[in-house]
Amino acid sequence: MMRRFRHCTIPVLLAGMLCLPLAAQQFDEKRWGKNSPGVELGIHEGPRTHESSGTALFYNIIGKGFPGDKVYDLWFWNLGKKPQKGVEGVSFDKRGVLVCSGKPGSCVGKGTDDPINIKTTAALGEPKRFAVASRDGRVAGFVEAMPFPIKASDKNCQLSVVREAPQAEEVAVRASGFTPYEMLTVTGTLGPDNTMHGPTAASDGTWQAIIGTKAFGQDSGVATIKVAGKGCAVAVNFQWGEGSEQAQ
Predict the structure, then answer these.
(1) Is 140 helix (H, G, I), strand (E, B) or coil?
(2) CA 10 – CA 7 distance, rounded (Å)
């Protein structure tokens, strides 16, 4: 079992002190999510705690295949913002855990190879996105956590909705488990309007789209999306607009 240290906790969304100050830097958003060849990035979630601001989430980053001769930085990408550099000079210990080694040019925790613990909160359907990238831009790994998913399943079919904007004004809809190339029936209630589409599943039985939920003249509401095929049908509903971004 991985040991958890509380020496160098990085608040992503919660107010508090950082081990190193956040530095707004440039990151090519088009590269986000595209791991370098041979590189893997994973995430380990620790026990959740309940606080006045919502459920506190604790994460450790796990890496594999990162060359040891490069200097790396930890990045975050919160909804509605540009990617931000969170900790400079990070590295991986022998177990693959992201740490502050304390060596010259590296970040410093309390002791040698101090694991970096990330503390954050999340709304329903909000992804937590992390990246570890080398200073020269040649090596990068990415990982995403979904602590409070919006999803449904029926037989082998699954449907999920991921926020693409802070108040779910825009969402990514992902469906899977359908028959390859079958015609799907996608219906939705977005604001006061009902919509219907007939897309075709991809060769792997998936379908995905970016959908806007905001209704003209409304500040909030409930959206419903249903995807049906020959053998199954899945539907979800979720809040959008003011109040929907509250931490769980």
Answers:
(1) strand
(2) 10
- For every residue of 58-85, which 3-state class applies, written as one string? EEEEEEECCCCCCCEEEEEECCCCCCEE
116/204 same-domain check: no
The count of residues in the chain is 248
Phi, psi at 61, each rounded to 5°? -95, 135
pLDDT tens digits for range 116-171: 999 999 999 999 999 999 988 899 999 999 999 999 999 999 999 999 999 999 99
Residue 55: how many other CB atoms lie within 10 Å? 15
Q: Identify the residue whose tokens are 């995807």.
A: 227
CATH number at residue 119: 2.60.40
Q: Tell me if the pTM is above 0.90.
A: no
Assign residue 125 a region: left if phi > 0, alpha if psi is -120 to 50, beta otherwise?
A: left
Q: What is the CA radius of gyration of the chain?
A: 20
The last residue of one of the domains, among 130, 145, 160, is: 145
Whether 36 and 105 share a structural domain: yes
